[in-house]
Amino acid sequence: MPVWLYFVRRGQTAAASEGRVIALRRAYHDESFGFRKPRQFTMLDYTPAELSNRAANAPLLRYADALRTHGHRAASIDPLDLLRRERVPALNPSRYGLSDPSGTYDIRGILWTGQEPEPNNHWALCDITEFLNTVYVGRIAYEYMDLPSKTERLWFSHLLESQSSTSALHCSAQRKHRIHRSIACSEVFDAFLQAKFPNLKRYGLEGGESMLPALDALIGEAARAGVTHIVLAMPHRGRLNLLTGLLGYDPVSLFHKIKGGAEWNVEGGQFSGDVLSHLAASPTLNYDGKQIKVTLLPNPSHLEAVNPVALGKARAKQYTLLKVLEKGSEGVMCVQIHGDASFTGQGIVMETLGLSNLPHYTSGGSVHIVVNIGYTTPASSARSSLYCSDVAKMINCPVLHVNGDYPEDVVRAVEIAFKYRNYFRKDIVVDLLVYRRWGHNELDEPSFTQPLMYQKIRARRSVPALYEDRLVNEGVLQKNTATSVRASYKEALTDALAASASYSPPPIKLERQWSATKIDGNNIKMVWPGSPEAQIFDTGVDAEILKEVGGASVSVPDGFDIHPRLQRHVRNRLAALEKGEGIDWATAEAMAFGSLMLGGCDVRIAGQDVGRGTFSHRHAMLVDQKTEGVVVPLNHALSKAAGKLELANSSLSEEAVLAFEYGASWERPDFLPIWEAQFGDFFNGAQVIIDTFISSAETKWAKQSGIVLLLPHGLDGAGPEHSSSRIERMLQLTNDPYSPRPNVNVNMHVVYPTTPAQYFHLLRRQVKRNYRKPLVVAAPKGLLRLAAASSRLSDMLPGTKFRPVIPDNASTDTAERVILMSGKLYYDLVKERAARNLDKRVAIIRIEELAPFPFSEVTNVLRPYMGDGTKRIEWVWVQEEPRNQGAWGHVKDRLGVVLRALGGNGDVEYIGRREDAVPAPGIGDTYREQQKAVMDRAFSGL
């Protein structure tokens, strides 16, 4: 039985060690989804004789542990030998009183050689030193002795030391030929592009070719172990080599793209495509008869931003497999490739690592490969740590450093990494030390800032050439065979380049789970609001179901002791349901969730404190005050529902958490993913994800998403921060047209609802319609408990739906001023209008959906106020945000278009705060004065 799978003491069978099994439970999924599974590890026990020997030979034990701990500092891991290897005193046996090289020592319980202890249990010190240096001071360096788990430390010691004494290190001739082919073809590919497209920024892999056999070995090991899906995230360096060399991307399509063509064709859509270094693929590969699907995600140029997206997609795919195949994390693995400078410098790396072992977020461990290729900034200016991988130590992650000049060692390193990940379900890092033959791109001159490094690089032969010479010298590879490999691949590339002249890109194909947006067989004709195929759904629900769901949302098991202050929360909800009025936001949300769950839809809401809600309003999860047991009432009381509610109370992260949820939305169109910011302005920490994924992924990559962003918004005297969700930024990111145009594919929806019923319909609409769009909600704060902002049950019954525009009840005949506005200010305006007795003279119209702008609905609501054309109406836009913020910049031209179409001059007056550098003042008196001024101006002159 392989020692890397089970710790069985030498000379014993697996059954004999069963009494020493310990179960380490890793909560890599949420209990409510049935994902929690125990991981069992067989623990090595020392026999009494071994324990006695360890005590008797304590100096030797200290020496062995010193090599395990500090050997990496002297290892030959730098291909350029620019990292000066230290003289490490800890590696000298004399430091431990071991001075006689020929002296013999009993190694029982100290070294793990994989051999029987008798009669070979006494070794000479020189042999022990040679053995430990072979294992720990070679071309692979190991950092694992700082792991807090003794089990994991022993796992590494057993694996590394026992393999070093067996044939496990042997690399077959077949494997060597495969390695050679991958790196030789990579070199041919880069040379071909350089010759044919000399001005192309291709971010080639020259110097880092070992990345390809590393990934090939990793995917092969995963496939043979039963992994069926790999979700792969990587930056631009070497991406084209990977796509064409391993993932089967058609070079004809690649050359077509290089020459300016599109990578795919989508009928009727508005799509920009993306740059060459962001291309993606999702092939199914075959390794020894085992099929494995590898999904390389499209990525933006923001380094590392795609990593949490991949993590979220991997976890969502695990959930899908669990439901379909009863196979969760065992079937899916996330692989993240990084650059050395970005792994250290980009904060999203640390945020993503922080998610790796958390309930609701972990996907059972990722394999990280840091392609340590160097940067135009020296390492001394790029990081404060010894290694670029040191940031991974924050999660007690083992690190393997390997010299990229030796592809066979690289392969061994990634195979060890996979075994660790697959056994412990934890992250592991492979630091692949290579170099870049060119600068940041092929048009850059790196010797401006790295003259000595590039003197060395330009004087040395390439990695494929060096490896080829080794194989020829070993007699494994014939020179003419090597030449043939290169020539045949170059010929294939030449043929592909010629074929690209007449190439026509195929229509994009959607994966099966996205068939709901499939219009024409496997060819997608994208669906968007206004297109003929877009379906309008009735999002209302029967009263009996709403009451059942509402009651279930506050139901707890018998004997469950809820907090005394929540008793009122339960009573109020049940009373509102019984009366059919006074439905607050939290109740409407719960009814939306539960009704979707009854229809088979899973709902996941993630963010900080989402279970209780930032404003202590949601209480979708309850905690027993005596036992601290947790119950999610909707899952408990709606056990018949096919869907589940997952409440992912997240770490204090915005960027990685939002990216994670977004990645899940790519995998599963059949569920409702929500990210709630504690306050609206918290999205600032996730702006990269919003800019490069949420607002633009469909346009760049034809990737639809139903992600919902809840951003609590509203000026309430709380100061500059926590007041604004920056509606203006979200609207600026939309491609919403300035005038009514049919079949415009608006990239995302931005709404500012003012009633719980509107929110209810928005959530249900997000799932029910037959296309997916990101939804940004300027969510309530003060309205959560405002009685005037409650809804009736009848507002959510069949026949009702979300209203993009809510008209006023004021008479169109008597109105002299029409206030157009969005959001919570409505309730202040209504109160002020009543106090001034202007109900008949002022109409207040709420525009609830800001993008896409509801031209037809606004036109229909405003038309009655125009009368016969002789009546003079004052049109004003009122908002509480400063003039340079809020929705004004977005609506003013669009309102003008509507009014001119109705026969007016299109003028709309702005009423609100003047331009400001902050969303709101931090001085309470100033805030109140400004708010009063807005109210006065809204009704002045009447």
UniProtKB/TrEMBL annotation:
It comes from the Eukaryota. Residues 583-786 form the Transketolase-like pyrimidine-binding domain. Keywords: Oxidoreductase, Thiamine pyrophosphate. The keyword Secreted does not apply. SMART domains: Transket_pyr. It holds the Pfam family Transket_pyr. Its cofactor is thiamine diphosphate. The keyword Oxidoreductase applies. Belongs to the alpha-ketoglutarate dehydrogenase family. This is Transketolase-like pyrimidine-binding domain-containing protein. It comes from Pisolithus microcarpus 441.
